[in-house]
Write a structure and sequence with these properties.
Number of domains: 2
Bound molecules: iron/sulfur cluster
Distance between the termini: 17 Å
CATH class of the largest domain: Alpha Beta
Helix content: 25-40%
Number of strands: 14
Order of helices and strands: EHHHEEEEEEEHEHEHEHHEHEHE
Strand content: 15-25%
Largest sheet: 10 strands, mixed
Radius of gyration: 21 Å
Shape: elongated
CATH architecture of the largest domain: Alpha-Beta Barrel
Oligomer: single chain
Structural class: alpha/beta
CATH superfamily of the largest domain: Aldolase class I
Length: 349
Amino acid sequence: MENKDDIRLLSPEQLKDFFIEKNQSKYRVDQISDWLWKKGVSNFSQMSNLSDSLRKSLGEKFCLNKPTKIEVKKSIDGTMKYSIQLHDKNSVEAVLIPSKKRITACISSQVGCSLDCKFCATSRLIRKRNLFFYEIFDQLFYLNEQSNAHFKRKVSNIVFMGMGEPLLNYKNVVKAINKMKLPGGLNFSAKRITISTSGIPKGIKNLANENLNCNLAVSLHSALQETREKIMPFSKNFPLEELMESLKYWYSVTKKKILYEYIIFDGINDDIKHVKALAKICEVLPCKVNFIEYNPIGDKIFRPSKVEKLQLYQKYLTDKGIVNTFRISRGRDINAACGQLVNLNGFNL
Ligand code: SF4
């Protein structure tokens, strides 16, 4: 690990100062930005339109903390999971999910997770640290290259549904999205980015104020506080009332509907009481419900519900005019499906 700062931590103003100090034109900032955020170079020697001496000066002062090792696993359904070793030997996972209409990149925001969603394998990892914004960006950059190489198409959608709670690494997630959007860089449309949160009210309100234009998904899993606390114990500190209040704020500012993510667990949230509670919450704000198939993670409490229960939920919501879909998990055979990301690759845990 290098004992220098990653050059990407510098603001354009700081970079400008650096170049002025080196008697260089301040327009070097645009050239560097192009190398960093469009071409995604991994070392200064690749910056071919800079002089040798300038590249040397950059290398003496800064570093580029790029992933040091990436392992890939391919699912029978085409999903690709990437285990990415970071410069400090920690690792995260990212997933590329191809379909006819889109290529989705599912990316991570933290090494491990500090929350305790009982159905999620990542919750068993202690949160080691937040990812820097450039490490979040690098996941997209790499997955985009992979997408072009394997599917001859660019990544079309990004979901923050990998390891970690994105709103608990708020600043880096927002900064990473702004880098993904850079017109002179990847020029990714924020309309195609979804931040999936387990429900951090303060973060939701702050995000509404960012004017990012991205979408919001909330892992709800129960519209009854008592049950939600059993599934996601941290939600004791973020009661549904507070969550709904933040979602109302989100909608009032962004006018973007909410996507509720919902797993139906056998014997836990699959009775009519839970169905009615979900419908009631859905009537508060424009929304859509996405039922997600449960991916067992080897525990005895959580089991997927019976198909009739899904049908019960879907019929009840549809009769009330609430849009809902059911998502079949992808990449389950390589532990790449929702809630399964746990770094089983042998990298440092
Ligand atoms: S579901 Fe998301 S927020 Fe909950 S433990 Fe897993 S990674 Fe963390």
